[in-house]
Amino acid sequence: MSRRESKAELVIENGKIVSTVTDVDERESADHERITWTTVKDGKTTHKYQVTVGFGNVYCSDDGVSWKPASPYECSGPVSFYGPRDPESIEYSVEQKSLDGKEVKVYRKYSVFAPADANGKKDFREEVSTIDSRGFFISVVDTEGTLDPRVVTLIRKQSWDTKTKIKPVVAPIK
Known about the structure:
Blueprint (H helix, E strand, L loop, with lengths): L1 E12 L2 E14 L2 E10 L2 E10 L4 E4 L27 E11 L2 E12 L9 E10 L4 E10 L4 E11 L13
Antiparallel strand pairs: 1-2, 1-10, 2-3, 3-4, 4-5, 6-7, 7-8, 8-9, 9-10
């Protein structure tokens, strides 16, 4: 059983956060999972819920009370699509650190990409992953933005927790 929390902050105007999407994924097993998406935009908060019980039995809800009948398809939470890109340069590093008295490794990948159009700016993506001594992810932080000057446009933080007990994942009552 595990619990993963992911938070993405979209930063667009003068360093101001325009929207935040947080998803919490509680996985009891490969085919028993509960996901909650929370979006905050323009001062409004919305939620989407998904419960998967058995392969091909996906339930979706906008309020956590009324559920759509089981479907083989994932609920449509906030989605981002990225096509493959070839960076101009990539830097990798690994650092040994201590976190809460335990040894961890911090892996960093920093990529710089050519401008998307003739008048555009170069952009960057930095991925920082913290891995425990067993090889499990503790956290991943992705930062994206443009260069000259450096402006962050997206920060995505993910963390995993294997110790928190989660409620059993069961099919919603109709």
